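user: Please supply your own:

assistant:
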Amino acid sequence: MGGKLRPNRRLRLEGVVLYNNDPLSPRLAIKRPIAYVTQHDNVHLPFFTVRETIEFVQRCALWQRCMPQSDAVQGRDSYVDYILHMFGLKKIENERVGTLADGIKDSDRNRLATAEIAMGTYSVLLYDQTSSGQDSLITYDLLQMLQSVVHVQHCAAVISLVQISPESFDLFDRVILLSEGEVLYQGPRECVESYFLKLGFKKPAHVDSGTFLQDIAAGEGGQYSQQPSSLSIEELIKFYKGSDYYKDVFRLVSTEKATQATLFRTSSIRASLQGNDVLVTEAPSVESCACVRVGDKVTGVCVRSEEFQYVESSDSASKVSNMLKASYSSILLQLERNLDEGGNAMYYQRHFGWQQFCSWWLSTWCLIRRQTIFVMRLKGLAIVRLLQILLVGLFTGSLFYHKGGRLDQYEMNSMRTIGFISMMTLMLINIVQLPVHMVFHRPVFYKQQGQHLFPVSSYVVAHAILNIPQSVTELRCLKRRQHIMFST
């Protein structure tokens, strides 16, 4: 789904993945519809502050969405301040990210990595086991931040986890249970226990939901079975494809209309039966970040974590309408909205439209600004390189001290030696910067280029513009020192 796999001799891909009925193409990829994040993406340039890191991503992303308004302070961007407050990074905004040994804490690094994703214009966030090797508290903190990002940006996040605590499990809206590449369940989180209870699997009170589901997916669900023989994985797959949850998912992905489906939790809502549809007649008070509007269609209801009741016919619509008239402490609704007509099309384009990164010139300018700050922060390294050049020029000039004036064939060989030594000197002195680029720049480049923040050509041009003047200066210092020694 992230579009990262490419067919080769060892890997063969079958089928087609569609994004809003369009296959993934270079034209679509540069519009950043999907962010694919792994645990290896938690890398940052250590010489920049937390604020500078966020501001760079914002310039490349060309953020244009409507966000909470706040007054800019001292010329700073109000949305950057909002993101820093949202992710708890405001107190350390002027601290350098640093390395793992002397930089900010690991939890703050995770917050910063998630904040970078929040600055993008993605419609879907894919997190591939980003919490592996971390404790449950850091995982809970990450999921809580992602929940806020999803609600604010009106996007979707798909997160794969192996071990999950009960607190983290309760943050999810939907659960997708996979086994051997097949789906065993895909539906609301509140209904997963009642679904498997219907199939004969009962969760004990001392077992958390994550462990319960993981054991079933691993084929070890017999310990929870209330029947003499538990269902196999193949039978669970067959039952799911015949369930209402599968039919509802298939209906959503098969429709040609742009439809927004939202799970909304509330204590009460006013809706009326109109034909075979149940429509919202009065928007409730703000109880969730989900957006509920008058005219939204109610397509499913879940009360007290029981089986989800979907609206499939006039009888089921009448039953759901009667359920909404009663009072409950908590009720889960599935609301759908058609985004193809009138103002809804503008709403869809604003919140779900795939926006391309900034132009080539603007991305190159952003990279030049960042590289300039990098060079100024490491000006000591540039001074050391100049001193090395002067010393090597002094050495080579004194080594061939008497090779001036007219040269014979033997002396020409000596001059060729001087040229060879000069070229090798420039190459070896630049090796000093190799660890900086390989250790710090390279992983960050792969991460940001994979997120389509800038084209590769912009990165090459920006680094060349900053490195060529320094290399020319070093070459002139070397040649000048050799010329002085030869002319003496």
About this structure: Confidence is low (pLDDT under 50) at residues 64-74, 341-355.
